[in-house]
Amino acid sequence: MESKGEQLHIFFFPLMAPGHMIPIVDAAKMFAARGVRASIITTAANAPAVESSICRSAKSGANVGTLLIEWPFSAAGQPENFSWIASPDMRLDFLVGTPALRPSFERLVKNHRPSAIVTDMFYPWTVEVAEEVGIPRLVFHATSFFSLCLEDILVPSTASQENHADSDDRFVIPGIPHRIDFSQSQVFDPKKMRPDFADLLMKMKVTQGRNYGAMVNSFYELEPDYVEHYRQVIGRKAWHIGPVSLCNKDPADSAIRGGKTTVDQARCLMWLDSKEEKSVLYVCFGSLYQFTKTQLREIAGALESTGYPFIWVTQGGGEDNPSGQWLPEGFEERVVESGGGMIIRGWAPQVLILNHVAVGGFMTHCGWNSSLESIAAGLPVLTWPLEADQFYNERLLVDVLKIGAGMGVKVWSIRKEHRSAVKAEEIVAAVGRLMGASPDAEEMRGRARELKAAARRAMEEGGSSHADVGRLIQELSDKQAVGSRV
Ligand code: UDP
Questions:
Q1: Tens-digit pLDDT string for the chain (486 aa)
Q2: Which of 218, 236, 240, 419 is such that its CA lies 20 to 30 A from the CA of 142?
Q3: Strand runs (DSSP E) across 144-193, as ranges?
Q4: Coiled-coil annotation: which residues (predicted)?
Q5: Angle at CA 142, nearest 5°, toward 238 and 404?
Q6: Which DSSP state fits 326?
Q7: Does ligand 1 come within 6 angstroms of the Cβ of 378?
Q8: Which fold has domain 9-247+459-485?
Q9: Number of the ligand 1 atom closest to the C-alpha atom of 288
Q10: What residue ranges of the chain are covered by domains with CATH 3.40.50.2000?
């Protein structure tokens, strides 16, 4: 227990999507390990995944559990998890529809009277619930400080606010510590987005000032200029608490992260054991993304011709090309059965794979969890962003941290058929830049190793993230003590 007095009780309320649930559940476990009572708010269909992720912590004595809210869309047949929906339009419906969770969430808050709520960035309406009850709301950002700083500039706060010029010319982001440029096609453009979704992003931005502060899955030494910019220039209170994946000290905890059964785990680790150190390329585009059949074939062709052993995690091509049919003729026999590569269809034990000595690089879509897990494992990355904050994270990895080689993707899009196909030759060349023995590749590997050490130090007792968690617990405890005296 960090502080004397009444025990803090914090609600942690993630968006029901793997990339949001995983880090918030880790955060809840971290706070529970430091004496806080942590309640993770979720729906019945998502509860088993959360419960299997926290059961080892709970058994070891940490006060972490789940509380259920109702899912208001059952009658309409809407799935309870973002990743169970394939259609981009229905995914947007899922995001803009979350205010319907409010009555049920509000009842839980009123019944339990938590000391504070930590809620997903996609739930701006929770700030109103917190204000009504008179408790602090912290927003949980499953992204980098760097991307928060860029978003502050690029996402307009009103529908009428002009964004930068609509052109393919590159433009430089003004007023940030590094020279970072994009083309318009690489950034989210509210003018081209569904108005209700653009409106949600604006709400997320304009409610920021009403939050008690932000909890960010990052660490100070990774992006000090952007932690400072966020705090001093944008003027928001924020705590860096990551990389939260490192709270899972036992491989069994890493394996169960996300609460999915990974049938391939033992086979996968044995396969890795048979490979040379740093020889394997790990390819995974997060928990959500599918590609067109054309693109999948280009990736397959490239992986076959690079000669590097690989693990390729794929969600396949979706409804228009079901499992396996997109692989080039004979690929399984030539590449997989010969031991040159492994394909995981579905869910991989990512953190275990990234930390295996045989893995030398990660081809990633730059989702923030994957980016940070790679950093915590000391691996350089090959960046292939698709949408969301991924193009921002790419710039952080490639231009600022210099631990990544870019694939040169030019189009931000939520639709796989709108993304320009990257050709096999380009992929092969990029893999060579990442995995090869050039001085540039060696330098990237060296910097990645240094960041791994810094990430681990940040999470140890006395480290920057460990200390920030302690400061936040103390601050909330002091606030609670004052509140209970008045
Ligand atoms: N993940 C995993 N196995 C998979 C795919 C993803 O464990 O097969 C985890 C990954 O470790 C990360 C999260 O799912 O913690 C994905 O988050 P990220 O921000 O990288 O991408 P998103 O899926 O949200 O786009």
A1: 455 568 999 999 999 999 999 999 999 999 999 999 999 999 999 999 999 999 999 999 999 999 999 999 998 889 999 999 999 999 999 999 999 999 999 999 999 999 999 999 999 999 999 999 999 999 999 999 999 999 999 887 666 555 554 456 789 999 999 999 999 889 887 777 899 999 999 999 999 999 999 999 999 999 999 999 999 999 999 999 999 999 999 888 888 888 776 557 888 999 999 999 999 999 999 999 989 999 999 999 999 999 999 999 987 656 555 566 788 899 988 998 899 999 998 899 999 999 999 999 999 999 999 999 999 999 999 999 999 999 999 999 999 999 999 999 998 888 888 888 899 999 999 999 999 999 999 999 999 999 999 999 999 999 999 999 999 999 999 999 887 776
A2: 419
A3: 170-172, 181-183
A4: none
A5: 105
A6: T
A7: no
A8: Rossmann fold (3.40.50)
A9: 23
A10: 9-247+459-485, 260-455
| Mutate-to-test residue for ligand 1 from 82, 216, 369, 379, highest number of ligand atoms within 8 A of CB | 369
Residues in a beta bridge with 182: 171
- Which one of 20, 141, 240, 365 is the catalytic residue? 20
Regarding the beta carbon of 353 and ligand 1, being less than 6 Å apart is answered: no
- ipTM surpasses 0.90: yes
Active site residue 418: no
**Could you tell me if the CB of 19 is within 6 A of ligand 1?**
yes
The DSSP bridge partners found for residue 284 are 313, 364
Distance 19 CA to ligand 1 centre (A): 5
Output Rg (C-alpha) for the chain, integer angstroms: 22
Closest CA to 184 of 211, 164, 214, 198: 164
Shortest-distance atom of ligand 1 to CA 371: 20
Question: What is 260-455's CATH superfamily?
Answer: Glycogen Phosphorylase B; (3.40.50.2000)
Residue 20 a catalytic site member: yes
| Gap between the Cα atoms of 165 and 5, Å rounded | 55
